[in-house]
Amino acid sequence: MEGDILSLTELRQLRREQPRKLFSYLKQVERDFVFGVEDHRAEENEWGGEYRVLLNRNIELHLVPHYNEQMTNEDELPQFCVMPDSELAGTESERSIPIDDEESVPGVTFFVEPDAYDRMVDELAHVVEQYDDFDVIPDTYFLETELVNLIHRRVLEHETIKKEREYDFRRGLVGGEAPEVDLEDEGGDLDHGAPPRT
User: Fold this and answer.
1) Contact between residue 183 and residue 15 where contact means Cβ atoms under 8 Å apart
2) What are phi and psi of 5, to 5 degrees?
3) How many CB atoms lie under 10 A from the CB of residue 54?
4) For residue 42, what is the DSSP state?
5) Could you tell me the pTM of the whole model?
6) Counting beta carbons within 10 angstroms of the beta carbon of residue 177, is it exposed (0 to 12), middle (13 to 18) or buried (19 or more)?
């Protein structure tokens, strides 16, 4: 199995029947991270990205094509996101997101060329088609994609993200030393940084 690319059925079977073997396999084949993808394209004028990528069950990277009624400016964007902008492509915008009167968390927007953004969206559709609802896909499965390249080259290298990675796998990971929380025991909604629901 080492080095093989497994199907969704095979990965789910390992998670269900041999979680420690799954954990061992992931450690062997991943390069820098594992990830999962949620498709929210059917939601219009809602908060959050059209795709949401969860890195190491910790960092939620939203792909936001444009502002909308729920995100009218940068201050209302998710904590970490990717946006297309031909003038700002290749740059990052850092901001502080207030949680309450005394506390805030850092946020970063990664700007990319519009055509690069479109390629990433196409790639994510392909990932969802193959591995829908599985959140520990090895990065090496999609190593040649625009998305994984962006994550390797810019996202994981950003100082704010490096600090956030101290909390990688805080939601638990099946396998290893009998984690307290199974991956599938928690909801899959990637809403970190969302405004309160009304």
Assistant:
1) yes
2) -95, 120
3) 22
4) T
5) 0.83
6) exposed
